[in-house]
């Protein structure tokens, strides 16, 4: 099979086992630039594993992942790390901000990992923090801000490198509905404005409602609801 | 508050320490291992004095020196013993030849039967060496059949190389000085070794320097996993305990760890005691049975350690408010103040100051002031370090991502970082001070042998009566020997008994004689008189060397044994020679130089043979090859290896003790550093995975771990250098020794400290890389 | 909810009398509202007229004569189409969805498919509402939120049912 025309990131027949547990069993995926795709499914169904495979964090046991015409599994670990630094952004549920760094330093971190000088990186970081309405937190440390604010900082950090694909794993999982919605609005607005694709892993329908379409993972198999209907 | 309530709270804490699930267990065991290591080291330290005294007693018990002026008559309870002490490679080799003269001859300690001629009993270590390949060279020197081993009470260390061999005909050699007749073993007047005040000072400081880091280490160990403990205490507050109760519960937890640590410590000590028996460090080995701490000190350790653990815990909780919903540091922690931290080291200096210049002459140092002063100075390091780390770290500028991560973490928790390296800093400061002290008093305790070792490096001394010429030939044939200068030496007096004047007589061929004097010309049959030798200062050679004058070789002295006193007449045609520095400087020769052709046969037995050897140091084991040859020529032959300086043994032992102790302490601290590093890494598992997800290089994170350890250690080393140099200067001034910084010592101690950091970082890399695997991101 | 489709579905497992059908319906779906036999009768007449069922035979017993109905191929297709079509997301949908799921289980169809399709439909509605909410004023937002929460409740039910399909299959096929 060839990836659907125009897709930025696609996966075919992914299989991944953790010991005796089969996390993915023939999963498929594809996403276009500027598209927001929700990955849904019950817990333990393999949603997160699918995201990790797509992001090149985890290597699948078999199957192909194509990003922008390049085969991910053919790349070395260092190449995939470099790709994650330059082309991908990440938001997780929690535990992602470095507690010792101030918020603006946290946001600037991906830029600095790419070699951007500190001053310039923090300037760019600040513009993103303004967009996510957290620029007043720049001198604070993650321990001193609320969960919603912290998650916005994390979103700002995920977008600071202008990624082509943004991976969000339960980005609102630790937030109340109002904060969760605000984070989702800001996240999807920002992604759309930069034409970034968003892979959004969630089990919450109201979060998934911010997507353009959804993919359901069950027992390691994925179902692309749009292609079926 | 009733006692019962107190006890209940403490017990609850104890329960928590052991029932907190896997985490609780890990924490309790970590604490216990830390405390246990500290306790073991404490016990070992308290056992060292007794170990040294047991060694001293054993040494005295097997002493065979009589100091008797009159020769003892042969009887059925006498023994003739010859000292054959030697070296094998770098190791001392204690050897004795035994010839019992009757059925009641005394047996040396640890030996139950005299070895017959051609047999020997050896120490277990020597037996093992002789049976191994590396001992083959020594086996040539000691070919006797091994018929038994020396028991523990005849040895002063498990690794000691010692033997007793059977011999005959020793009685004839008794006058030689190395051979004596005895009727008992043991020093008849075993006395305390005179303690030199400077040596005492050194020993005191060594103990303080070794024990301080142990204390710091125990203090750090009881704080392992403190954050997790705080969270549990918060949970307790939530279900209704008040803040005093939580403190008591925390104390109970610390107590549990400390008591378990005591048990561990006793076990570690027993293991360490056994291991100590199989280890030899810097030529000192001991038997496990030597290492018995005095009961009083052991009891003190058993009480003090748990008490200290509880106090440290309460002290650490002093600035912490435990609220039901979490732990709050009381406000923003006050900026660390400098003044009281400076008071400690300054007070230490003040205590040491009055003793400056006491030197060796003015006698003793006040032990309490010395100990107190040194302790205060070193505690001052631990108090200063957090302040230094905080102030410096707050000013650290920008750098790469790894640097930024490390610096920010240090800024947020500089106290933890400082505690981690406190132990190393104290050990290094103390060790630097001691190094300086040692190097400074080096001149006093290191005798310069003043040897010029360019012409000859070894000397073989042959007993009287051994013909020199064939012996010299054998040395020439020995591999690695480049030149042999053989002499027979003796002493001439102007009378057969109690001579008033006398001088030296040296027999050798022309080539050899030219090495020790300036000869106008020389052919075999010449006799020379050396004028102007320093050796003969006060003797009028022109009188003694008057031709026709009758002199006596090997004269008898009042109170001494009757010697041969063979007459010799100064020949006609005696030439004069000028002295020149001998083969090994400081032995310039005076007296008569005689070529072999001019030597009457009668004089031969009165002379001792000396062969000076120029050896090729690049030939492996050349010194042992020479020793083998010497032993083959005559068992009583002695060899000396000349070096430019030689240190007194006593000083060596202290230096050794310091190095052994510092090595142990640093290893211990390295272990604790590793433990806390690993704990910290485990707690940030999720963060590490997230960082990897967005493409952080492994190198970046590894480097940040390195920086995070290296920055505080570097600061600690700098500070400890300052303190160490200060303390060293003060100690040197106290002993009235010129102050000189022993930079190699400083560098080697800082190097050891740095090596520990490096090892700890390297050891924490594999877990770090494992934690960075993407599996850490899985939450389900 | 469509009684006709439900009765048709019940016939898929084999021909039945009208009373049998009523009893089966009541047992599986009519927990709180049993069918009136008249409803069965009129529905079956309509299905007969549309060719979705045929009369398989008439039994003349002691009482009134009883017709036995059997489903036709057209009938099966009709049930299939009904099951595959997601319901328009609206409040109080559960009874219809429940009927569909149970019928799918009874007729050995993939009930998870039905749930997935329905979820997709729900999400489509939620997307529209979310979009309207983002563009609208506070009043719009509140109104949309109300609808969204209801839809979310449905979706949660869908998820829960999906997670319990195996148990449900056991219960209804017993």
From TrEMBL, chain A:
Family matches, as SUPFAM superfamilies: P-loop containing nucleoside triphosphate hydrolases
Gene3D superfamilies with a match to the protein in the record: P-loop containing nucleotide triphosphate hydrolases
Domain ABC transporter stretches: 9-228
A Pfam cross-reference name: ABC_tran
Signal peptide (from-to): none
MF term (GO), any: ATP binding
CDD domains: ABC_MJ0796_LolCDE_FtsE
The organism's place on the tree of life at top rank: Bacteria
Keywords from the named record: ATP-binding, Nucleotide-binding, Transport
Protein name: ABC transporter ATP-binding protein
Automatic annotation (TrEMBL), chain B:
TM ranges: 28-48, 198-222, 254-276, 296-317, 338-356, 368-389, 417-438, 657-676, 705-727, 747-769
Keyword Lyase: no
UniProt superkingdom: Bacteria
Keyword Membrane (UniProt): yes
Topology in the lipid bilayer: Multi-pass membrane protein
Subcellular localization: Cell membrane
Residue ranges annotated for the ABC3 transporter permease C-terminal domain, each copy included: 205-318, 661-773
Keywords: Cell membrane, Membrane, Transmembrane, Transmembrane helix
Name the record gives this protein: ABC transporter permease
Pfam families referenced in this protein's UniProt entry, alphabetically: FtsX
InterPro entries linked: ABC3_permease_C, Membrane_comp_ABC_pdt
Native source organism of the sequence: Streptomyces hyderabadensis
UniProtKB/TrEMBL annotation, chain C:
Entry-linked Gene3D superfamilies: Winged helix-like DNA-binding domain superfamily/Winged helix DNA-binding domain (1.10.10.10)
GO molecular function, one term: DNA binding
Residues of the Transcription regulator PadR N-terminal domain: 7-77
Pfam family, one: PadR
Listed GO biological process terms: regulation of DNA-templated transcription
Record-given protein name: Transcription regulator PadR N-terminal domain-containing protein
Species annotation: Streptomyces coelicolor (strain ATCC BAA-471 / A3(2) / M145)
């Amino acid at each position: 099979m060839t990836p659907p025309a125009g897709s930025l990131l696609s996966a075919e027949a992914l299989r991944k086992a953790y010991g005796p547990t089969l996390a993915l069993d023939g999963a498929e995926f594809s996403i276009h630039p500027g598209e927001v795709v929700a990955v849904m499914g019950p817990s333990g169904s393999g949603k997160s594993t699918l995201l990790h495979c797509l992001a090149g964090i985890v290597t699948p046991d078999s199957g192909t992942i194509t990003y922008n015409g390049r085969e991910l599994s053919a790349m070395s670990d260092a190449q995939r790390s470099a790709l994650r630094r330059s082309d991908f952004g990440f938001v997780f549920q929690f535990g992602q901000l470095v507690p010792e760094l101030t918020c603006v330093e946290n946001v600037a971190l991906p830029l600095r990992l790419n070699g951007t000088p500190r001053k310039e990186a923090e300037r760019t970081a600040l513009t993103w923090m303004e967009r996510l309405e957290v620029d007043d937190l720049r001198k604070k440390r993650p321990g001193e801000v609320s969960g919603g604010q912290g998650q916005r900082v994390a979103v700002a950090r995920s977008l600071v490198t202008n990624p082509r694909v943004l991976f969000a794993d339960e980005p609102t999982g630790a937030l109340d509905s109002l904060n969760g919605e605000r984070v989702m609005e800001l996240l999807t607005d920002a992604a759309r404005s930069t034409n970034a694709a968003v892979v959004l892993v969630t089990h919450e329908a109201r979060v998934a409602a911010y997507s353009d379409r959804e993919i359901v993972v069950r027992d390691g198999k994925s179902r692309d609801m749009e292609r079926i209907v | 508050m009733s006692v019962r309530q107190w006890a209940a709270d403490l017990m609850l804490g104890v329960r928590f320490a052991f029932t907190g699930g896997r985490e609780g267990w890990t924490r309790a065991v970590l604490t216990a291992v830390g405390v246990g290591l500290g306790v073991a080291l404490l016990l070992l330290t308290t056992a060292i004095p007794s170990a040294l005294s047991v060694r001293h007693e054993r040494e005295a018990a097997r002493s065979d020196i009589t100091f008797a002026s009159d020769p003892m008559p042969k009887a059925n309870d006498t023994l003739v013993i010859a000292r054959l002490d030697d070296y094998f490679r770098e190791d001392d080799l204690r050897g004795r030849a035994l010839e019992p003269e009757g059925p009641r001859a005394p047996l040396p300690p640890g030996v139950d039967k005299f070895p017959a001629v051609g047999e020997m009993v050896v120490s277990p270590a020597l037996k093992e060496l002789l049976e191994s390949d590396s001992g083959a060279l020594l086996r040539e020197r000691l070919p006797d059949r091994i018929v038994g081993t020396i028991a523990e009470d005849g040895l002063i260390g498990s690794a000691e190389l010692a033997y007793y061999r059977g011999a005959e005909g020793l009685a004839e050699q008794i006058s030689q000085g190395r051979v004596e007749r005895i009727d008992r073993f043991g020093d008849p007047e075993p006395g305390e070794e005179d303690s030199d005040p400077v040596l005492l000072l050194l020993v005191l400081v060594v103990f303080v320097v070794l024990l301080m880091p142990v204390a710091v280490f125990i203090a750090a160990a009881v704080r392992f996993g403190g954050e997790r403990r705080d969270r549990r205490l918060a949970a307790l507050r939530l279900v209704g305990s008040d803040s005093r109760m939580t403190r008591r519960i925390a104390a109970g937890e610390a107590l549990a760890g400390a008591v378990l640590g005591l048990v561990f410590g006793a076990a570690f000590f027993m293991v360490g005691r056994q291991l100590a028996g199989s280890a030899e460090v810097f030529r000192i080995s001991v038997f496990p049975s030597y290492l018995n701490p005095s009961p009083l000190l052991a009891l003190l350790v058993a009480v003090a350690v748990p008490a200290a653990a509880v106090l440290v815990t309460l002290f650490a909780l002093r600035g912490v408010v435990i609220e039901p919903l979490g732990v709050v540091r009381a406000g923003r922690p006050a900026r660390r103040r400098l003044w009281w931290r400076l008071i400690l080291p300054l007070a230490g200096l003040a205590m040491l100051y009055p003793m400056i210049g006491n030197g060796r002459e003015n006698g003793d140092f006040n032990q309490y002031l010395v100990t107190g002063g040194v302790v205060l100075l070193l505690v001052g390091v631990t108090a200063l370090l957090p302040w230094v780390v905080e102030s410096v770290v707050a000013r650290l500028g920008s750098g790469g991502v790894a640097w930024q991560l490390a610096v920010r973490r240090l800024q947020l928790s500089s106290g933890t970082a400082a505690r981690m390296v406190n132990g190393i800093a104290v050990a290094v400061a103390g060790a630097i001070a001691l190094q300086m002290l040692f190097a400074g008093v080096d001149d006093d305790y290191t005798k310069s042998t003043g040897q010029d070792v360019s012409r000859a490096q070894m000397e073989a001394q042959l007993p009287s009566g051994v013909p020199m010429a064939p012996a010299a030939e054998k040395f020439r044939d020995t591999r690695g020997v480049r030149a042999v200068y053989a002499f027979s030496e003796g002493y001439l007096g102007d009378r057969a008994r109690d001579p008033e004047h006398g001088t030296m007589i040296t027999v050798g061929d022309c080539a050899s004689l030219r090495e020790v004097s300036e000869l106008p010309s020389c052919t075999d049959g010449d006799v020379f008189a050396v004028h102007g030798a320093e050796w003969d200062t006060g003797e009028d050679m022109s009188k003694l060397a008057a031709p026709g004058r009758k002199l006596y070789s090997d004269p008898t002295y009042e109170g001494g044994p009757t010697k041969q006193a063979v007459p010799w007449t100064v020949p006609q045609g005696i030439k004069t020679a000028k002295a020149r520095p001998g083969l090994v400087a400081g032995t310039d020769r005076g007296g008569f130089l005689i070529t072999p052709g001019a030597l009457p046969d009668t004089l031969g037995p009165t002379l001792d043979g000396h062969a000076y050897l120029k050896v090729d140091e690049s030939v492996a084991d050349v010194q042992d090859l020479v020793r083998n040859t010497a032993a083959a020529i005559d068992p009583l032959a002695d060899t000396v290896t000349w070096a430019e300086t030689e240190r007194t043994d006593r000083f060596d032992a202290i230096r050794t003790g310091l190095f052994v102790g510092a090595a142990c302490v640093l290893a211990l601290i390295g272990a604790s550093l590793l433990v806390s590093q690993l704990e910290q890494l485990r707690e940030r598992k999720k963060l590490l995975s997230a960082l990897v997800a967005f493409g952080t290089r492994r190198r970046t994170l590894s480097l940040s771990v390195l920086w995070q350890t290296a920055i505080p250690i570097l600061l600690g080393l700098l500070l400890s250098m300052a303190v160490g140099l200060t303390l060293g200067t003060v100690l040197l001034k106290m002993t009235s020794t010129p102050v000189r910084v022993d930079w190699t010592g400083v560098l080697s101690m800082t190097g050891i400290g740095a090596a520990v950091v490096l090892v700890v970082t390297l050891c924490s890399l594999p877990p770090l890389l494992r934690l960075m695997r993407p599996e850490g991101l899985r939450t389900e | 909810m469509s009684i006709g489709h439900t009765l048709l579905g019940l016939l898929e497992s084999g021909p039945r009398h009208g009373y049998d059908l009523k009893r089966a319906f009541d047992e599986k779906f009519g927990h709180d509202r049993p069918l009136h036999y008249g409803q069965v009768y009129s529905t079956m007449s309509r299905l007969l007229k549309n060719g979705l069922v045929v009369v398989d035979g008439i039994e003349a017993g002691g009482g009134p004569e009883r017709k036995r109905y059997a489903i036709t191929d057209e009938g099966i297709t009709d049930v299939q189409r009904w099951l595959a079509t997601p319901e328009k997301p609206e409040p109080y949908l559960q009874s219809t969805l429940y009927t569909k799921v149970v019928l799918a289980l009874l007729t050995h169809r993939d009930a998870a498919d039905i749930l997935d399709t329905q979820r997709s439909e729900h999400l489509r509605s939620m997307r529209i509402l979310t979009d309207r909410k983002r563009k609208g004023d506070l009043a719009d937002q509140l109104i949309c939120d109300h609808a969204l929460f209801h839809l979310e409740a449905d979706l949660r039910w869908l998820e829960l049912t999906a997670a319990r399909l195996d148990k449900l299959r056991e219960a209804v096929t017993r």
